[in-house]
Amino acid sequence: MPLHSIECAVRGYLLYLLGCTIFSDKSGSLVSVEYLQYLEDLDKVKDYAWGAAALVHLYRQLGIA
User: Which domain of life does the protein's organism represent (predicted)?
Assistant: First the structure.
């Protein structure tokens, strides 16, 4: 399997993971494509502050509710 195909599969899985667990909403199945820009460079993904981003997202969702 070519490396590019593997990286695309990893990005797809990470997008699913982000949309369904960390940044979930009431739909439970929709994932915003805006998260794809953060998955472009897979070497930088581990350096992002995902906990802080999840906390901000939760506070925004509380404000909406």
Answer: Eukaryota
d(CA 65, CA 61): 6
> Domain span at residue 46?
3-64
Domain count, the chain: 1
The pLDDT value recorded for residue 28 is: 66
The alpha-helical segments, DSSP class H, found in 1-65 are 3-17, 50-64
Contacts of 46 (CB under 8 A, 6+ apart): none
3-state secondary structure of 31: coil
0.90 exceeded by pTM: no
